Amino acid sequence: MQAVVMAGGVGTRFWPRSRRRRPKQLLAITGTASMLRQTAERLRPLLPWERILVVAQAGHRQAIREELPELPEANLLVEPVGRNTAPAIALAAAVLQARGAAADAMVVLPADHVLRRDAEFRAVLAACARLLQQHDPLLTLGLAPQRPETGYGYIRRGELAAQVEGRDFHRVERFVEKPDPDTARALVADGRYLWNSGMFVWRVSRILAELRRHLPDLRAGLDLLIQAHGTRGWEAQLNTAYSGFPSISIDYGVMEKAAEVWVVPVDLGWSDVGSWASLAELRQPDAAGNVVPAGCLTVEARGNIVEGHGRTIVLLGVSDLIVVDAEDALLVCHRERAQQVGEIPARLARLGKESLT
Amino acid sequence: MQAVVMAGGVGTRFWPRSRRRRPKQLLAITGTASMLRQTAERLRPLLPWERILVVAQAGHRQAIREELPELPEANLLVEPVGRNTAPAIALAAAVLQARGAAADAMVVLPADHVLRRDAEFRAVLAACARLLQQHDPLLTLGLAPQRPETGYGYIRRGELAAQVEGRDFHRVERFVEKPDPDTARALVADGRYLWNSGMFVWRVSRILAELRRHLPDLRAGLDLLIQAHGTRGWEAQLNTAYSGFPSISIDYGVMEKAAEVWVVPVDLGWSDVGSWASLAELRQPDAAGNVVPAGCLTVEARGNIVEGHGRTIVLLGVSDLIVVDAEDALLVCHRERAQQVGEIPARLARLGKESLT
User: Fold this and answer.
1) CB pairs under 8 A between A and B
2) B2-271 has which CATH code?
3) pTM over 0.90
4) Which one of A153, A183, B131, B143 is at 20 to 30 Å from B271 when CA atoms are compared?
5) Contact B330 A336 (CB under 8 A)
6) CA torsion angle B234 B237 B239 B241 (round to 10)
């Protein structure tokens, strides 16, 4: 088994903690380690560092090497330009193919999600690997929807395709892109729909074949990468190939078009930690519904989320706020506006405050 | 004329900027200078520094000397223990009597109020001094009420007692302590009531006589102070006398009981800067009603008051908040709770955070 950790994100919704050079996956928001490090360590009981690849932006190379010093240098794959998930997966699959791992199971994981049930997660991956010894589908992990979320994609599971280690693998009948609220409610009520987690397992050879089939613009670049791997020309060929790749997601570019796409329902204590508001799910609120650091004083304050930076923060008579303190900036935001935080860096840049973005 | 600036306050409602050693009157909240310095400079065109006394707490001695380096050392009168306004005025009057100024006009002013109309203020004081050459009342400056405020005392003006330089001096018919909301509305509607400003003018000899008459507990201490002034025993006698003084306000202890109390209606652009909420009256709000420092980014935010400390503050989708940034602490408070900020230092002390109080 090989794992690919997708660490190319920016995570501007975690401003002022997230910055261009310190994206969400490098922040220790959800524990004492960064989400990237937690993701890697979650895999370690299954895999040596040599079989973990990380795909990231050039601007984050140094920070990621510091965060994961055990990762072999050749396993940090740097995107010359930001694309979407299909090119990043193509890059990783090309490297694995060139290393002779075409028949291996390839696990693809976002670097910036939280999974509470680590052991269950590894058991699921082991079952997926076992399944791939007998079958050759594109596997996606599906999460039982917890609410009519409009920010995620949904997957409708169809007939049972296989059972391995007591787990059911279903054929996927249909993908649904981010739905409107009414549709989301209907999907949750239906009972057959799962959230699309962005976690995939497949054989290296199978995803390469599907990328070639459904994204013809990737073919020449894939051949170039496989040939150039391990040669002196690698960096130059990577630049050439990657610049020519279309910016498209793996879901839209491959999963929604391919045959033999299967889903395995999983229960992993998952959160995509999508915004500061999600801290209310990850940490234990106090009796007044406040999620605040030790030493924070709350007086007649309810439902607030505070991320401190060492200073004493006092909340008096306020409700449903997000307060995030950083060394050089402070955010005060209504909880319902947590998604809009992602716009702040661009607004600051327009005010000439690039140093804060 | 002699002036006494009452600088004994604590001003905890301006936490986290105000601290035990840095009370409200020493903060530059309302301009580039502290309110204490503004109060002294407002008097300077009328009076030399030698005729300005400042009464303050022992803990503020050093900070006040740094803020008013021109003030003669002997003119900073330090209260051995915190009392109320009657003892502070008694101390100043005793010093002036001992200095041979018994017949002078004595102006008493709070150190932590804002007056926008400096020249008019000095003209009022000049008229009061002129009046005191002919008459011997206790004079108080009365402000036209701007709203049915429940936090102030009110004065009902009676018949005209004198006119000087075109200004009307009325006998006071009645003092009203802080009223309930219904009473406050009735007082404002009545038209004859003025706000009690805490600014007084009287002859030194007259206030000493009234203090002796209405506060017999002060008599022995007053005699002690007048005798000890200028001697080596001053500090010890001050401690003895002051410790025995009752803690009582000049309004309750003298003004409400004395005969011949007059009021002169004045229009001075006054504010007592009672809480962070009052910054909305002192500074120009932007189109969305926000009072924020330069460089603060507001996005769909209305009616907020922000006091910065150099860091960039971003408000997103929030309304009617007070946000005060300080080096070691941060306050986020609803505007309607501005008065309750005064409770924060005591709450922090109970949490063992004395260093923040």
Assistant:
1) 117
2) 3.90.550.10
3) no
4) B131
5) no
6) -130
